[in-house]
Write a structure and sequence with these properties.
alpha+beta; Jelly Rolls; 2 domains; 6-stranded antiparallel β-sheet; about 60% helix; about 10% strand
Length: about 600
């Protein structure tokens, strides 16, 4: 309510009415602030519940095991993939100093704190640009539990992107003024550099701040706004950052990537709306509608209104997706629709979405409670999505924790002939690093590994493929039986198979000290190795070992526990296995059709 209206009412009705009129908006603002705080607290408790069984996974082991301030394999400024990750590394190393790898919760707390801080900055921005208070609170409440962006809510490693968003939004709020000053520039530079120090998401965040300054104050202040962060980032890139750009994410060359850029950017933008709303097919319509609203609002932006921040962050969303997909065209639409990128896009688009909904609500004269109720329903849907993704994590990450415990227990008492604990999903866990954690007492407490878990650990730590045998010829495995097509006689102790698309398996018995045998695959392919409790037991998880074409390689097995089972490559071409002396009787008793010399 405007000041002249209040003054007129004071003259006409007296000070009591004026005080009530003034205090009512204050009460509404206070209630809305309390509701916002409640949504943040409720969201935190919900996220802690969904993360209660998580453990370190994939990229996180790089920060836990390979980084450090001194004597580390990789330094603080070495990129993780293409990202400058100094601040996330420092966060992980600080937490590790106090908590080791015993619990995942201390690593989750910084990520969740930054996530909630980002939500609060977006809420403040939405209020400032004129989004309705209740709509601002409910939209941000939905963002707090954004199931469509689950990776940034269920993975402590995403402290990197949440950090870039937080410092980037701080930079935007600092420079969002009609007349930039050196003080605002200096603070903006600080927040911009901090955003870049967290991840590559800092690049579009600095761009958003520069666009905002350009819209409000012109090109020269915008260049000044971005100058220091850009100079710092370019210096890092020239010094060490370029090593993270190895071309592995590209998709067939520069021209191919350029041609795919518009389509993949469009796919990413439309996916933001479809995944968040849970309705397929509406993404394109909503992107066009939002773009039309922003174009219609350009006049106010040119007049220097606060809506400039809405246009700047919305345009940055397009630039963000273009930047993401340009480096991941080989992943196609899968890369463009990753949930961690959707999370960034929603964080950038929320002010524009909120302002558009506010004006639409005013035009249609819909009660605020109805609009807020629709957003609450969307929040409930996203909580359901978050719960579903968390349930998927429960089937993977506790298994990783048990695998780590089993590997450490195995390495204490048995020989280890492989370097990696689990090279498929967690290639940063080396046996040397695992032993350091074990000696320091930094592994999680838990019941001893079961025999099945120890066999699972042995599948990686006690099986290796090398160019030369690790064991003498006298220590050779014995063929217990085989299944599949018969083989053909060869040199002494050798048998040649021609799988030709069928499944051929060899069941072995290994001497107590370990043994080696050679495998030569004419067409290469994947040799699958399984360790089973017995020759008649159902097959457990298989470990794939890549065989080069027409090259003899040695399979080494260090454990006599269980029955190693080899599934030969099914590609066309012969597979020759040698180092099986005395297997002739076993083969004859199995089929009577194979000769082994």
């Amino acid at each position: 309510m405007s000041t002249p209206v209040l003054a007129r009412r004071e003259r006409d009705r007296g000070p009591a009415v004026t005080q009530a009129a003034v205090s009512r908006p204050d009460r509404l603002r206070r209630y809305n602030s309390l509701l916002h705080a409640a949504t943040l607290l409720g969201g935190l408790l919900l996220l802690l519940f969904f993360n209660r069984r998580d453990y370190f996974f994939a990229d996180e082991w790089d920060f836990v095991l390979r980084r450090g301030l001194t004597h580390a394999e990789l330094g603080l400024f070495t990129p993780h993939n293409e990202h400058w990750s100094t601040i996330p590394i420092l966060v992980f190393r600080t937490v590790f100093h106090f908590a080791g790898a015993r619990s995942y919760l201390p690593y989750l707390l910084p990520m969740l704190a930054l996530h909630l801080a980002v939500a609060h900055l977006i809420w403040r921005t939405m209020l400032r640009v004129g989004v309705g208070p209740l709509l601002s609170t409910t939209l941000v409440g939905m963002f707090v539990v954004l199931g469509a962006g689950y990776q940034n809510l269920l993975w402590a490693f995403q402290v990197s992107q949440s950090g870039s968003l937080f410092f980037g939004w701080a930079m935007i709020m600092v420079v969002d003024r009609e007349r930039p000053s050196w003080r605002s520039d200096a603070l903006g530079w600080l927040f911009g550099v901090l955003s870049l120090l967290c991840s590559g998401v800092g690049v579009p965040m600095v761009l958003a701040a520069a666009l905002l300054v350009a819209f409000r104050s012109g090109l020269r202040p915008a260049v000044r706004c971005a100058s220091v962060p850009a100079l710092v980032y370019l210096s890092w890139y020239v010094a060490v950052g370029h090593s993270g750009y190895n071309g592995q994410n590209g998709g067939g060359g520069f021209l191919d990537s350029l041609a795919a850029l518009p389509h993949l950017t469009w796919v990413g933008l439309t996916h933001v709306f479809e995944a968040t709303l849970g309705v397929a097919g509406l993404g394109g319509v909503l992107v066009v509608a939002l773009a039309g609203y922003l174009l219609r609002g350009q006049r106010r932006m040119r007049e220097g209104g606060v809506q400039a921040v809405v246009v700047a962050t919305a345009l940055t969303t397009i630039a963000f997706y273009a930047l993401v997909v340009s480096g991941r065209t080989a992943l196609g639409e899968q890369g463009a629709t990753a949930s961690r990128y959707l999370y960034i896009a929603v964080a950038l688009l929320l002010p524009a979405i909120g302002l558009a909904l506010t004006e639409l609500d005013n035009w249609l004269h819909v009660p605020w409670s109805v609009a807020a109720g629709v957003v609450i329903l969307l929040a409930v849907y996203n909580v359901g999505e978050l719960r579903s993704y968390a349930a998927t994590n429960y089937t993977v990450q506790p298994a990783v924790q048990r695998r780590v415990i089993a590997a450490a227990q195995l390495a204490r008492t048995q020989p280890v002939i492989a370097a990696l604990v689990e090279p498929t999903y967690d290639p940063d866990i080396s046996i040397q690093a695992l032993r350091r954690l074990d000696r320091a007492g930094d592994l999680p407490a838990g019941p001893p590994a079961t025999p099945a878990e120890l066999l699972e650990a042995a599948r990686y730590l006690q099986v290796s493929l090398t160019e030369a045998p690790l064991y003498a010829p006298s220590a050779a495995p014995r063929l217990v039986r085989f299944a599949g097509l018969p083989g053909a006689a060869g040199d002494p102790g050798c048998v040649t198979f021609d799988p030709a698309g069928t499944t051929t398996r060899l069941y072995l018995a290994v001497p107590s000290g370990g043994g080696s045998l050679s495998v030569t695959s004419e067409a290469g392919g994947s040799l699958q190795v399984t360790l089973n409790p017995g020759a008649s037991s159902p097959l457990g998880s298989e470990r794939p070992l890549a065989l080069a074409a027409s090259r003899t390689e040695w399979l080494n097995i260090a454990t006599a526990e269980g029955t190693p089972t080899l599934t030969l490559p099914a590609q066309s071409g012969q597979v020759r296995v040698c180092g099986l002396p005395g297997a002739q009787a076993a083969v004859r008793s199995s089929t009577g059709s194979v000769t082994v010399q």
